[in-house]
Write a structure and sequence with these properties.
DUF5819; membrane; transmembrane; transmembrane helix; single chain; 6 strands; 7 helices; 2 domains; alpha+beta
Length: 253
């Protein structure tokens, strides 16, 4: 056993650097001075921006909750709430968010309906010309064909607008109920947007009025069904609707 002096001598002569244990990890270069962890996400924002982000998230959450509640009340059976506040639910849902149960119908739709539109255009020199028919359904079909993730607008906006119109008008195109004028406004809005996208008015021109028509053809039944399809198509022409200046500017009449 060494004496105290010998231990002291060993300490006095051992002046080399002391190596860190191999298992001791080096310091984290990303850790700020003082040992505080770096903040990410909303916590990294300054206090005013944190408040703004919190308010924005709260507004989005409220809107989502209101929309889900309104949709539930719309599809739910008649109850005390819908009887008392049915008008408010309808104003929220129609026409963009209308729901139906046709997917589960015992006799699904067996027809193809093509919706077309044309317009009278006021030209830059003061004249009036009528455009050809624009097949809006064919345009939507081309946009969807080959697209693995087509938008809801491409799939349903025109179809639901036309179904909405047919359900609120009789065979003579007279509105039935209070939503008839709303369905006309909705269709006319779609026509204006599509025709402006196609530059139907031309340089210096403006849309004056629009007209819709539909062509409905029965889907050919499969050979094994034994059914016979007529193969005929039915055409429905709607009256001309004037287009207001506000609608051409993106508003609603």
């Amino acid at each position: 056993m060494p004496h105290d002096g010998e231990r002291g001598g060993m300490d006095a002569h051992d002046t080399g650097p002391v190596a860190a244990p191999p298992d001791d990890p080096p310091g984290d270069a990303e850790t700020p001075a003082g040992g505080a962890e770096a903040r990410t996400g909303v916590a990294a924002l300054s206090p005013p921006y944190q408040v703004g982000a919190a308010l924005a998230l709260a507004v989005v959450a409220i809107v989502v909750c209101v929309h889900l509640t309104m949709t539930f009340l719309h599809v739910a059976p008649s109850n005390t709430v819908t009887k008392r506040h049915g008008d408010a639910v309808g104003e929220w849902i129609y026409p963009e968010f209308e729901q139906n149960w046709k997917l589960f119908a015992p006799n699904p739709l067996q027809q193809n309906t093509a919706v077309q539109v044309r317009a009278d255009v006021r030209t830059a020199d003061g004249g009036v010309r009528t455009t050809g028919w624009y097949d809006l359904s064919a345009e939507d079909g081309r946009a969807i064909d080959g697209n693995p993730l087509p938008s809801h607008t491409q799939q349903n906006a025109l179809r639901r607008a036309w179904d909405f119109y047919v359900a609120t008008h009789d065979a003579d195109n007279r509105p039935v109920g209070l939503r008839g004028s709303l369905s006309e406004t909705y269709l006319r809005r779609i026509a204006v947007l599509r025709l402006e996208r196609a530059d139907a008015a031309g340089p210096g021109g403006a849309l004056d009025r629009v007209q819709f028509r539909s062509r409905t053809t029965a889907v050919k039944p499969p050979a094994w069904s034994g059914e016979r399809g007529s193969g005929r198509s039915q055409t429905r022409d709607l009256p001309w609707w004037p287009v207001t200046a506000r609608e051409t500017e993106g508003g609603v009449a």
